[in-house]
Amino acid sequence: MKKLTTVQWVATGFVVITAGTLALGLAMQTPGHQHAGHADHAAHANHEDHTGHDHDLAAAFSAETQEYTCSMHPTFRSTDPNDRCPICGMELIPVSGGRGGEGPTEIEFSGRALALLGVQTEPVRRGDAEQVIRLSGQLEFDERALTSISAWTGGRIERLYVNYTGAYVEAGARLVELYSPELFVAQQELLQATRQANQDAPAFLRDSQATTLRAARERLRLLGLSNEQIDAVITRGEARDRITIHAPTAGLVVTRNVSQGDYVNTGDVIVELADEQRMWALFEVFERDLGAIQVGQYLEFSVQGQREMLHGEVISIAPRIDPERRTRTVRVALEAGEQALSAGGFTRAEVHITQSDKLTIPTSAALLTGRRAVVYVALGEGRFAPRTVELGQRFGDRLEVIDGLEEGDTIVSRGAFRIDSELQLQGRPSMMSPEGEHAGGHGHGHDAHAQHNDHGVHEMAAMDELAVTGDFSQVDLSAVTDAYMGMWEALHSDDLSAWQSSAKIFFAALDATQWPTASEAVYELLATGKGHAHHVGNINTARDQFFAHSQGMIALAEAGVLPNTIYLMYCPMARRGQGAHWLQPNSGLLNPYFGATMLRCGDELERFEGQSS
């Protein structure tokens, strides 16, 4: 077999064999590009990963194939197991434990090969499926139990009996003493009307006097005096220019709008009382989940700091969707007897919706590439075949199957990606390449780039859910971007101290930025490790946090809200062979996940234009 030089070919895939798994993936093929640093990595990988286990795997596969390949560059094939990869110098491993089946897309493995691959299967199930909707919100006082005490007449606050927010008052307790000239005049009119009504008068005047007395009493009542207070004025026969306002109900003072000595006008709210025994939980529900919430429905939820679960009835759903958050507020009234709660407390709820007669498979069984979904069906005797399926809703750790499978079909629930990778290496139809390719190599140009963009498909699929929908037109992310680049520079330089300094600046920049509410999921990723950068004593931990930060930054870059042009990079070897993306200010690749060990390992995937471009 003709060996290819480093100048002619670059990594188009990788195979990492560990103590119990065989993980395979793809990487971009670009003429003239090479992964520097792989030779150094090879020695380390050989020492840990290829001692003993390769012999077992080779023995399982030896009867089925005599070809060997490089775990970093599987396009290279050789029949000599003692040969070495001409690109990176690594030792070779068996190409696969599989051979072609009866159909063009079938693949067959021996029992031992299957054990080494760790393949697990289970039947497709039909039955009840439970959907879990997770909500977050906060506690507030029940609006129906709020009482506002207003000034019934203008005047000055002579004395304030309740002078702080949070005080608890009993029904009938004194709240304020109000000085009011208007009240004084009204009392004098009452006394005058009372005296006239008590005098002997002709019959035609008695009705008039009684009417005048009733009008005087009514005026005082409208000024805030109770019937008992009005009778007290008549009894003592003396007008006073002060009135005491009493609490009509018991409650907690949640608002105090006046201080002693203040002047108030008629209708001004003096204090507001709330019944602390009656609370609401306000949840924000996204548009996609509104169909699962109905008025009258009972929810179970938890409150931070409380061990017991709370219960309540949905009493209302906001009539309009918030244009920024894209949510509607759901009000849940807590059941009586659930006290010791504080308004403003954070709460979480899980809504369990059960749907019957659903055909489902585990989420781990489906291989997702864009709009396609592929599962592997077990045909028996170690044979497997891919099948394209149409998926529906997600129910926890299971996916609904709309078309492509039948109840009782046996599918691969664990290890489907490893089986698919073998088909890719053989150049046959697979998840990544529905039409298949020649086993000896991969195409160049646009097709190669399109294939390379499928690298890290699971990671990028997860980032697709981080759609940035908030309004960033007035948000300046320059400081956040600069600090992120500072962390990138520190990590590719293997400088933990510099990373700690940059991380501190990064988190400070996050706090100083006015984030749109709709970007909450992105912010949570960016805030990973916030406040604890100085506690990180291992650069690998810093790199794990940088992976989360990168996911959030990539979502912002894809939305076009970062200030400057930025480049998306990918390394298939990062994060222990799982692959990882990151952003750079330029196209000169410097790997932050390996630093000097494999500084040039990776590829440029995409260029994002910034707002200033």
TrEMBL record:
CusB-like three alpha-helical bundle domain boundaries: 182-240
Residue ranges constituting the Heavy metal binding domain according to the UniProt record: 68-95
Record region (Disordered): 32-52, 430-453
MF annotations from Gene Ontology: transition metal ion binding; transmembrane transporter activity
Keywords linked to the UniProt accession: Transport
Ranges for domain CusB-like beta-barrel: 279-351
Protein name in UniProt: RND family efflux transporter MFP subunit
Native organism: Alishewanella jeotgali KCTC 22429
Taxonomic lineage of the native organism: Bacteria, Pseudomonadati, Pseudomonadota, Gammaproteobacteria, Alteromonadales
